[in-house]
């Protein structure tokens, strides 16, 4: 089933044997609404129609059904955008979305109403306006490039953006959120030199299943590591993808083996047509609790929920202690009571 390029439509999915002809009408409607992309690296990993890789990238008729609680902008990013491409929620950091294209279109994406292969590329003038906005706000210490996927930019354009941001005196940290190292690992060769800079660019790799860390992905990540690029991982807890203690353990071990420190495990955001991926928070907490003591502490991400309405991310456990008093080796409650000064 080898294809030279990325599958971008239902005809391509059928030709590759990833979906049945009978599903065509419904999937055409899904495709008209949400972009499709299955690059060769992911296609090669798919063993059957509903496996953990296929579920992430192959469209499904259930995407046409929006549940009552699902929202086009589930975490409330839109009204936090002062200028095009910028999302500002926290005082010290800001998101910059230079484009909205991605190497794959995740069927559970919280920005699925925005991302896609066309549109969303900031013009030079819009980029300048975004830099000026950051330049005028000394409280901002960190710029997080996201999108879309910033590593879909040409190395030349990415370099220009990193240079412009690094030149702003109060910007101490640059970060890139990306799926490219696992979804299009062949791009890393040209990008590694751009990401390896005097000031570290922290790269946060989005991956949800151990199998995404193929030999090619590990080679690409190795190039980043040799350039001195610090690597973190983020994942989404997804039904049928990584919703068991075994799958999470394998995922976090695969990340560490590739030099990627698990950073966040996200609770799924309520984007339209994503219910089939939902795992309740209580179950997520139970799964993480099962991992404790079983895997190295380095493998531990923080399990977070992005509270709808623009409130931001909060850690949601699991709690390992039944009671503060039992756990406090000093015998009192005060040490764990949050710095009230009682004692
Ligand atoms: C997630 C997010 C960040 C980054 O949060 P960290 O906890 O620092 O990783 C920044 N801004 C917005 C709007 C976000 O949603
Ligand atoms: S790579 Fe990220 S932004 Fe793009 S579709 Fe997947 S989750 Fe959404």
One letter per element, helices H and strands E, the order comes to: HHHHEEHEHEHHEHEHEHEEH
Query: Which structural category do the helix and sheet elements fall into?
Result: alpha/beta
Approximate shape: globular
β-sheet strand percentage: 5-15%
What hetero molecules are bound to the protein chains? pyridoxal-5'-phosphate, iron/sulfur cluster
> Biggest sheet, in brief?
9 strands, mixed
Instruction: Please work out how many helical segments DSSP would assign.
Output: 12
* Percent range of helical residues: 25-40%
Distance between the termini: 68 Å
Query: What value does the average pLDDT take?
Result: 93
What Rg is obtained from the alpha carbons, in whole angstroms?
A: 21 Å
* Poorly predicted runs: 335-343
In total, the number of strands is 9
Strand order of the largest sheet: 1-2-3-4-5-6-7-8-9
């Amino acid at each position: 089933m080898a294809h030279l390029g990325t599958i971008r439509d239902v005809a391509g999915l059928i030709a590759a044997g990833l979906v049945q002809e009978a599903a065509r009408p419904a999937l055409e409607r899904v495709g008209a609404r949400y972009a499709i992309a299955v690059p060769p690296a992911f296609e090669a990993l798919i063993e059957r129609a509903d496996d953990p890789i296929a579920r992430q990238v192959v469209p499904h008729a259930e995407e046409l059904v929006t549940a009552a609680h699902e929202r086009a902008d589930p975490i409330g990013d839109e009204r936090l955008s002062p200028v095009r491409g910028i999302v500002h929620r926290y005082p010290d950091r800001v998101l910059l979305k230079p484009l909205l294209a991605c190497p794959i279109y995740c069927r559970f994406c919280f920005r699925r109403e925005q991302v896609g292969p066309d549109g969303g590329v900031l013009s030079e003038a819009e980029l300048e306006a975004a830099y000026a906005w950051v330049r005028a706000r000394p409280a901002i210490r960190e710029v997080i490039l996201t999108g879309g996927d910033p590593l879909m930019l040409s190395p030349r354009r990415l370099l220009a953006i990193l240079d412009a941001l690094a030149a702003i005196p109060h910007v101490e940290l640059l970060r890139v959120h990306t799926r490219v190292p696992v979804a299009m690992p062949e791009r890393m060769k040209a990008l590694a030199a751009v990401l390896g800079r005097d000031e570290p660019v922290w790269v946060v790799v989005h991956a949800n299943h151990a199998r995404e860390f193929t030999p090619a992905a590990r080679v690409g990540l190795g190039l980043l590591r040799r350039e001195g690029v610090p690597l973190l991982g983020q994942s989404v807890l997804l039904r049928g993808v990584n919703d068991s203690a075994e799958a999470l353990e394998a995922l976090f071990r695969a990340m560490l083996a590739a030099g990627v420190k698990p950073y966040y495990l996200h609770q799924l955001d309520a984007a339209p047509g994503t219910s089939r991926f939902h795992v309740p928070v209580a179950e997520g907490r139970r799964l993480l609790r099962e991992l404790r003591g079983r895997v190295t502490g380095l493998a531990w991400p923080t399990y977070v929920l992005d509270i709808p309405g623009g409130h931001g991310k909060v850690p949601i456990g699991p709690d390992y202690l039944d009671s503060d008093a039992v756990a406090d080796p000093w015998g009192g409650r005060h040490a764990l009571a949050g710095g009230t000064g009682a004692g």
